[in-house]
DNA sequence: ATAGGGTTAG
């Protein structure tokens, strides 16, 4: 049997030729050779206008406005500009190359818009930051598909209207749409933003029900939600159950551990990740450097800095902000400054990091100077910036400046002071000897006091040898936690330094009566005996060593010539022969 | 179409 013949070719040959040439045309488009594609396949395009879609997609990737305009004119000349399919592609192109206005005009001219057209415009408006227009479009739609709901949920979450995103999920469910992996990814991100563990667990049920547990995106989002909401165990479980992990799943786990304070585990996990063969990227570096910063492990920090440079990630503001903090906490302020100055693009967080670094090193003037420069450059300071700035002022005894900034924060920036801000101000007033004002502030502030803020005041009493007030304050702290040894110890030291031995022995009696015990520092002593001089020690968790500094000291920074350097949140303690540089024995 | 990050008081 022979095939019918078209001219000199069989039908099969014609089809084969057609498939071949379409393939070649698509190939040219995907490589960006638009002119060649148009010239060689003019007749094919004219007979099948849907082929224009490939040209449009190529133009979208090129992000070239002139290319897009030429192509658009060509489409108009070909007479298929009323084709919905082509029009939707054009809408998408204009929105992706940042020509929202053109897309809006085109959308307005379309005679028969379909759901797809509206979906594209919802996404386009969201991407250009206009959530309201997206919402209006969404609300005006009589028919929606799953992508419509997904676009709106994603937009709401993107602009941190997380609760509303969750509400929309239940609304879509009510009208009969089951969430897919895209919806779930978005709402889980919303739950993470809300630290909403309960809502997140409910979404987890949807994930299981839809069979998306093993989906990389849904799985990572789920794990991220758990870890951001403080449930590291559940998050880790989700990741471990995933049969295939990619870089993002790894980093989700690493970042989760970093955020939950497991800095040591972060470094282990990071090394493991590299052994398995994943390449770290800038987001990995940020998490890892922050952990080095928390541990004050300079050597590891420097090594990772080198890797950052090698990976070409050294220009990222996020990476640089974490480097500034790491070097500052490792006593290398010069390197912090260097990193700060080398940064080409800057933002609030970068400036805040540098202000914090100066404050950490007791350089109040420099911190203030930087803040003023920041204001001149019209960067909007945030609440964290002010914590660092106030901290810098209090550590340098700059009372007037500090109070001025506190005022500025409330009045000019409209920020509501948090407990951290009040603690800085109490420290500021207390250090400068305004003990009564500091106490009054704690009693009158609109947020609930915690033991830390009272302890801050107690330290100030110690500096100014005010035993009477210290006694009253110690009672208040013990009201928060009667078993806390720190106020007794502080009070005892205050009595001792004021040479009131009577008060001191009464206090020790009270401690015995209430069965309060001060933790001995056995572990540190053992470490010192068993570790050869000059060997760096990485981390010791929950180590209490210095009772005089009244802060739980957590990390050993290094051991040099049998001298141990320990870091707490605000300063370095040098221990030699069992004696701390701040004067206390352990 | 969708996922992961940086600065913060004692």
From TrEMBL:
Tell me the domain of life. Eukaryota
Q: Which family does it belong to?
A: Belongs to the PPR family. PCMP-H subfamily.
Q: Where are the transmembrane segments?
A: none
Q: InterPro entries given for it?
A: DYW_dom (IPR032867), E_motif (IPR046848), PPR_At4g14850-like_plant (IPR046960), PPR_rpt (IPR002885), TPR-like_helical_dom_sf (IPR011990)
Q: Which Pfam families match?
A: DYW_deaminase, E_motif, PPR, PPR_2
Q: What is this protein called?
A: DYW domain-containing protein
Output one GO BP term. RNA modification
Q: State the taxonomy lineage.
A: Eukaryota, Viridiplantae, Streptophyta, Embryophyta, Tracheophyta
A Gene Ontology molecular function term for this protein is: zinc ion binding
Q: What PROSITE patterns does its record include?
A: PPR
């Amino acid at each position: 049997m022979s095939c019918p013949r078209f001219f000199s070719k069989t039908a099969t040959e014609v089809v084969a030729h057609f498939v071949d040439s379409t393939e070649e045309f698509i190939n040219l488009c995907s490589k960006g050779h638009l002119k060649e594609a148009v010239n060689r396949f003019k007749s094919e395009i004219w007979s099948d206008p849907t082929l224009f879609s490939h040209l449009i997609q190529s133009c979208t990737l090129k992000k070239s406005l002139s290319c897009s305009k030429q192509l658009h004119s060509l489409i108009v000349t070909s007479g298929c500009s009323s084709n919905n399919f082509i029009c939707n592609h054009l809408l998408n192109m204009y929105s992706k190359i940042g020509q929202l206005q053109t897309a809006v005009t085109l959308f307005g001219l379309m005679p028969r818009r379909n759901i797809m057209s509206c979906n594209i415009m919802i996404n386009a408006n969201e991407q250009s930051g206009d959530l309201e227009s997206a919402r209006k479009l969404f609300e005006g739609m009589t028919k929606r598909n799953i992508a419509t709901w997904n676009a709106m949920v994603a937009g709401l979450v993107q602009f941190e209207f997380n609760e509303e995103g969750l509400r929309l999920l239940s609304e879509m469910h009510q009208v009969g749409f089951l969430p897919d992996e895209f919806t779930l990814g978005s709402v889980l991100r919303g739950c993470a933003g809300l630290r909403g563990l309960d809502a997140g667990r409910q979404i987890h049920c949807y994930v299981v029900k839809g069979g998306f547990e093993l989906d990389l995106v849904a799985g990572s989002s789920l794990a991220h939600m758990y870890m951001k909401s403080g449930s590291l165990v559940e998050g880790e479980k989700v990741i471990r159950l995933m049969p295939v992990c990619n870089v993002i799943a790894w980093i989700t786990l690493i970042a989760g551990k970093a955020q939950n304070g497991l800095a040591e585990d972060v470094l282990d996990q990071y090394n493991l990740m590299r052994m398995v063969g994943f390449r770290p990227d800038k987001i990995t570096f940020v998490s890892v450097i922050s952990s080095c910063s928390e541990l004050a492990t300079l050597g590891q920090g420097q090594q990772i800095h080198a890797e950052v440079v090698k990976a070409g990630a050294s220009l990222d503001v996020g990476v640089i902000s974490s480097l500034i903090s790491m070097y500052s906490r490792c006593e290398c302020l010069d390197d912090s400054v260097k990193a700060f100055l080398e940064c080409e693009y800057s933002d609030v967080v970068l400036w805040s990091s540098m202000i914090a670094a100066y404050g950490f090193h007791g350089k109040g003037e420099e911190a203030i100077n930087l803040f003023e420069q920041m204001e001149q450059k019209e960067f909007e300071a945030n609440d964290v910036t002010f914590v660092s700035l106030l901290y810098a002022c209090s550590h340098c005894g700059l009372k007037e400046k500090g109070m001025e900034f506190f005022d500025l924060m409330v009045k000019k920036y409209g920020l509501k002071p948090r407990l951290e801000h009040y603690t800085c101000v109490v420290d500021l007033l207390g250090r400068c000897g305004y003990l009564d004002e500091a106490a009054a502030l704690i009693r009158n502030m609109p947020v609930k006091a915690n033991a830390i803020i009272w302890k801050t005041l107690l330290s100030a009493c110690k500096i100014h040898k005010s035993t009477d007030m210290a006694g009253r304050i110690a009672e208040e702290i013990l009201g928060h936690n009667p078993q806390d040894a720190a106020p007794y110890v502080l009070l005892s030291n205050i009595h001792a330094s004021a040479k009131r031995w009577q008060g001191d022995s009464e206090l020790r009696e009270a401690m015995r009566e209430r069965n309060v015990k001060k933790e001995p520092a056995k572990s540190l002593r053992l470490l010192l005996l068993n570790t050869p001089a000059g060997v760096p020690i990485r981390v010791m968790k929950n180590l209490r060593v210095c009772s005089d500094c009244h802060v739980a000291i957590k990390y050993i920074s290094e051991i040099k010539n049998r001298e141990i350097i320990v870091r707490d949140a605000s300063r370095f303690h040098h221990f030699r022969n069992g004696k701390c540089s701040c004067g206390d024995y352990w």
